[in-house]
Amino acid sequence: MERAEDPVTYPVPWPYPIEYDQTERLDADVLVIGGGDAGCFAAMSAADRGARVILLEKAATIASGASGSGSDHWESAATNPCSRVTPEELVDAMIRSHDGYNNGISHYIECREGWDRLLDVEANGGKIRDTKDEFAGAPFRDEATKLLFAYDYHNRFTLRIWGETFKRGLLRACRRRRVRIIDRTMAAGLLTEGGRIGAPVVGAVGVNGRTGKFVVVRAKATVLCTSRPTRIWLFVPGAPGISEFRPPQCTGDGHAAGWRAGVAFTMLEKAIKAEWSGSRSFPPYGTGNNHNSWYACSMVDARGREIPWYDRDGRELKTVEERYRPAPGQTLFLKGGGEPDFPIYEFQGPDTPPTDELLQRGYTLPFYADLTRMPEHERRVIWGMMIGNEGKTKIPILQRYTEAGFDPARHLLQSYGDGWKSGAFLPQERQFFGLPGGMMNDWHLMTNLEGLFAAGDILFASNCDGHACATGHYAGRHAAGYARHRGDEQVDEAQVAALRARLYAPLGNDRGVSWQELNLAIARVMQHHCGEFKTDELLTNGLEVLRDLETRDAARLVARNPHDLIRSIEVCNILTSAEIVLYSSLARKASSRELHFTRLDHPDVDPPAWRKFVTVQQTPDGVKNDATPLDYYGNLTENYERENCDYLDRRTSR
Question: How far apart are CA 287 and CA 414, in angstroms?
Answer without folding.
Answer: 6
